[in-house]
Amino acid sequence: MHFLFVHVAPGQFEHIAKYLVREGGHRCTFVCEARPGTGGGVTSLRYRVYGTTSRKSHYYAKPFEEAVRHAAGVYKATKPLRNGLRPDLIIGYSGYGSTLFLPELFPGTPIINYFEFFLHPHHSVLDFRPEWVPFERNLLRARARNAMILLDLENCTAGYTPTEFQRTQFPQAYGPKIRVIPDGVDTDFWRRQIVPGRRLGRLRFEQDTRIVTYATRGFESARGFDIFLKVAKRIYEAEPNVVFLVAGDEGVYYGHDLQYIREKSFFRHAWNQEKYDLRRFRFLGQVSRKTLARIFSLSDLHIYLTIPCPVSWSLLEALASECTVLGSDTEPTREIIRDNQNGLLSDFFDIDGLARRALQVLKDPAAYRKLGRAARTGIQEKHSLPVTMPRTASFFEEVAHATEER
């Protein structure tokens, strides 16, 4: 069969597309805004987004307008090739409008959407941090910004999402349409390595130095960066022989941090809240997968914090790498980590409690290695590519064949 994937970049679809080509002998095509080309037997087609939202665009409508621009770009790039493409199944990432117009080009072709998150204005990512009362305009915008996702829910043949937590965020009426299938972790790559000399580039750490790691796409409130810094301070004040390896950048990818602060980045806002000893930290910026794997392999303790939003791939990768993970006791993290079984959990806001549990680990890291081993076993059993790729492929084929039979 021929599978057509649509997203701004291969992202969540890269592993499954290569698997379908390699194991099933299927044909796969990506329609992406970025990274055109061919690899792993997968053909790529680039689309462009024309124009941008203007000042005249209503603040509440801008996300929908931007999604329509993506949908139009996909349509324009795909239309000249529709006779040659002829997919048996279309798979798109919901929210960007990726698949909205494709039924006009490929009538009758079933569509599966990957659903990541459905935003709620209350009891959600917007108001989880009690110190910031959401601005009215953001609450109203939250009600409007699901518009494209609702169109996808209505128009798709079926959908899937990585976790049960994410599935429960969507309207109950569409629950039967959405299946839970984890993204998949390459456990052959993400594994604990022997790092000669405890070196990371030009950095070298003595055997008795305790290494605490923190990795995130952006230093932002959604990933508890300010909480992490405060916990780190309590740790190094009690345990002088510790260093913090911090991977990520100063971007904000979830929420509206910059609307609440005067500084140009949440990193600067968090850093200015207290007096921190810069010598204790190694801020590494965005790092390669290879470097991140070495960071996890050096880790005596990995701290992962998140508000109730989709968990980072880095959490699963750290668990696969046998890290002893101390995570925030929030719903999405609890679905992955079971306290004292494959990791540790503590309240997101309990700085003293997080620091206390961290210091217990750092006092004797070897005593907690069993949690890391259990974590890797759990990832292998539920999230590894050999487990998730056949499930995903079977789901795709099931939807495609069911449509054929009708």
Task: Chart the SSEs and their pairings.
Elements (H helix, E strand, L loop, with lengths): L1 E6 L6 H11 L2 E6 L5 E2 L2 E5 L15 H17 L3 H4 L3 E5 L8 H4 L5 E4 L21 H9 L2 H9 L2 E4 L2 H5 L9 E3 L18 E2 L2 E2 L5 E9 L6 H14 L3 E8 L16 H6 L9 E5 L3 H10 L2 E4 L8 H8 L4 E4 L2 H4 L9 E3 L4 H13 L5 H14 L2 H21 L1
Parallel strand pairs: 1-2, 1-5, 2-4, 5-6, 6-7, 7-8, 11-12, 11-14, 12-13, 14-15, 15-16
Antiparallel strand pairs: 3-4, 9-10
Give an overview of the whole structure:
- By secondary structure, this protein is α/β, with parallel strands linked by helices.
- It folds into 2 domains: 2-184 and 384-405, 3-Layer(aba) Sandwich (Rossmann fold), CATH 3.40.50; 196-382, Glycogen Phosphorylase B (Rossmann fold, 3-Layer(aba) Sandwich), CATH 3.40.50.
- It has helices at residues 14-24, 62-78, 82-85, 102-105, 136-144, 147-155, 164-168, 225-238, 266-271, 289-298, 313-320, 331-334, 351-363, 369-382, 385-405, and strands at 2-7, 27-32, 38-39, 42-46, 89-93, 111-114, 158-161, 178-180, 199-200, 203-204, 210-218, 242-249, 281-285, 301-304, 325-328, 344-346.
- It has an 8-stranded mixed β-sheet with strand order 3-4-2-1-5-6-7-8, sandwiched between helices.
- The protein starts with a strand and ends with a helix.
Give a nutshell description of this structure:
The protein has 15 helices and 16 strands. It has helices at 14-24, 62-78, 82-85, 102-105, 136-144, 147-155, 164-168, 225-238, 266-271, 289-298, 313-320, 331-334, 351-363, 369-382, 385-405; strands spanning 2-7, 27-32, 38-39, 42-46, 89-93, 111-114, 158-161, 178-180, 199-200, 203-204, 210-218, 242-249, 281-285, 301-304, 325-328, 344-346.
